[in-house]
Amino acid sequence: MDVADLANGDRGAHVEDLQGIVDEIYHALTPRLGEGKVADYIPQLAHVDPHKLGIAVVGVDGGVYKAGDCDEAFSIQSISKVFTLTLALGKHGENVWKRVGREPSGSAFNSIVQLEHEEGKPRNPFINAGAIAVSDLVLAGHTPREAIGEIVRFVQYLADDEQIAIDPAVAKSELATGYRNFALANFMRGFGKLDHPVDHVLGVYFHHCALAMTCAQLARSGLFLAAAGRNPLTGHTVVSRQRARRINALMLTCGHYDGSGDFAYRVGLPGKSGVGGGILAVAPGKASMAVWSPGLNHNGNSLLGSLALEMLAHRTGWSVFGP
Ligand code: DON
């Protein structure tokens, strides 16, 4: 089904029959389940059933709209980089930007090419090198175990759910095969850009990437970004309004690697993808949403997940660029 087929006239902040829209998108995409390529460079992820599709939308008013495999936990992978960046900004403030840039990379998430030209300072906090630099910042003053515990508790606090945990098999699988990440981290350490030993920093990085969450939990954890820094469900102020706006800006420009322009063009929302097939997207002032479908496109972003968000943004008129 073409996205245009799903268009309707209701494009205000309040969306009529959002559950109906979510159901319709799920059913429109069901015939395509299994499309795309499941990430297999992390052996544990290669076992995931490609025929999964989950959608969860949580409105800033607390309304929850879900379809499909929205309550099944999956590996959030790079989506966790939004949470570690938020933590690092809380600890180090603007000093974070001395260690990592804020520009789109235009290259793959695990590319090493720019790192040499830019002397070990990664382009942005969402490519692997940038997130490794952020893990180094989160480690400051902690053992790796403490830093991992702090990240897990932070995500539990954001989602208001103490059940959220790391999948140790995924963390172990990545530790055993993360040759490129070791190369990136060693390279940065060689430039004097990491304060802690490479195995400590990567221990933190691999574990936060191995967080397992459902679409519903993920959508709740992103709600503070949709509501000017404050989670309206818990009443907790997580970050300032300005910081929420800035994290959203980074998600929009860098959240899908060298597919960020295409995602902005098609969906028009700040979003962050992971190779587990999840995407967290934020409609500021309206809702936080998460989708999951393990088959990836050529940029390593969920194929059906991107399509589901494209349909959702179109039907709701939620694109930040206008309805
Ligand atoms: O380091 C890695 O390669 C993975 N733990 C995370 C990569 C990822 O999710 C890229 N996203 N599309």
TrEMBL record:
Record-listed substrate binding positions: 78, 128, 174, 181, 205, 257, 275
GO molecular function annotations of the record: glutaminase activity
Record keyword Hydrolase present: yes
Catalytic activities: L-glutamine + H2O = L-glutamate + NH4(+)
Keywords noted in UniProt: Acetylation, Hydrolase
Entry coiled-coil feature ranges: none
Pfam families to which the protein is assigned, alphabetical: Glutaminase
Keyword Hydrolase attributed: yes
This enzyme's EC code(s): 3.5.1.2
Gene3D superfamilies the record matches: DD-peptidase/beta-lactamase superfamily (3.40.710.10)
InterPro entries in UniProt: Beta-lactam/transpept-like (IPR012338), Glutaminase (IPR015868)
Subunit structure: Homotetramer.
Family under the similarity heading: Belongs to the glutaminase family.
Database matches in NCBIfam families: Gln_ase (TIGR03814), PRK00971.1-1 (NF002132), PRK00971.1-2 (NF002133)
Protein name: Glutaminase
Organism encoding this protein: Pseudorhizobium tarimense
Gene expressing this chain: glsA
